[in-house]
Amino acid sequence: MTPKVAFFGSPAFALPVLEAVREHFEVMLVVAQPDKPVGRGLKLTPPPVAARAAELGLPLAQPEKLRRNTAFEETLRGCGADVAVTCAYGKILPAALLAVPRFGFLNTHTSLLPAYRGAAPIQWALIRGETVTGTTIMQTDPGMDTGPVLLQEELPIEPGWTSLELSHALSGQAARLIVTALTRLGDLSPTPQDEAAATHAPMLVKEDGFVRWHDPARAVVDRYRGVAAWPQTTAFLGGARLKLGGLELAQGEGAPGEVLGVEASGVVIACGVGAVRVQSVQPEARKAQPAAVWAPAAGVDAGTRFDRWEP
């Protein structure tokens, strides 16, 4: 049997998965989050998946809510899909909706479940210094990424990857793996997750991007990698907020937050253990500039101390 599919997704991350599904299967319905105001002009803008569905002429729904939404349940039931696929859709699916397709919902989750359940598995895997992650295809249940595992595949994390590069790699892996899962639909054996091994990846907040200079240098760099897409890396100097870019490990020891030197390649700053090199700095309301250019103009030299921030 070649299943007919309803696809639930919203951001650009989900586009390769949508393209792979529609290449191999008939997509009966695309479901995305509602249009939202974007930019200074607050122009109402559809999420990337909704925009792509419109381009392709695919049936599209953007319900404001899912719980107790009988009209949308009927839309899903009436579209004729045998199974639904979710990829970064961004809303919790109620039990009543999960029961509508004959084969339920399959979710593409970008971690090796039960590790990193939640909204930001890619980011937290990097922040926590993982060297391997992967993609899980799971049967969705009413919990938060708690359903049984159908397929799972590892992905090594390259040392220089930030959340941007890792997202790209995992999006491609998820696209390939969901096609395999749908092709084998009905033959896959669900494996319950080990609840005792579960870890969580909550949605990021702005403070997750604040530099903890008392952390080891490796942890500072890993946090920078994890928050590269949003909220990005922020430090404070004399109360002023600065966006830092291009963080990498450097040689040196000193008091946490102390500038050890200004080099052509960047500003070297001591951490709790070791040091990092910052290659670019963006003061508030200004453009990013090379750290070596910013430092002398800002009066920053060896001995300058960044503000301490701790959660």
TrEMBL record:
Gene3D superfamilies for this protein: 3.40.50.12230
Source organism: Deinococcus aerophilus
Recorded name of the encoding gene: fmt
EC number: 2.1.2.9
Lineage, highest ranks first: Bacteria, Thermotogati, Deinococcota, Deinococci, Deinococcales
Keywords attached to this entry: Protein biosynthesis, Transferase
Residues where (6S)-5,6,7,8-tetrahydrofolate binds: 111-114
UniProt cross-references to Pfam families, sorted A to Z: Formyl_trans_C, Formyl_trans_N
All residue ranges annotated as the Formyl transferase N-terminal domain in the record: 4-182
Domain annotation Formyl transferase C-terminal: ranges: 204-295
Family recorded in the similarity comment: Belongs to the Fmt family.
Catalytic reaction list: L-methionyl-tRNA(fMet) + (6R)-10-formyltetrahydrofolate = N-formyl-L-methionyl-tRNA(fMet) + (6S)-5,6,7,8-tetrahydrofolate + H(+)
The protein, known as: Methionyl-tRNA formyltransferase
Role noted for this protein: Attaches a formyl group to the free amino group of methionyl-tRNA(fMet). The formyl group appears to play a dual role in the initiator identity of N-formylmethionyl-tRNA by promoting its recognition by IF2 and preventing the misappropriation of this tRNA by the elongation apparatus.
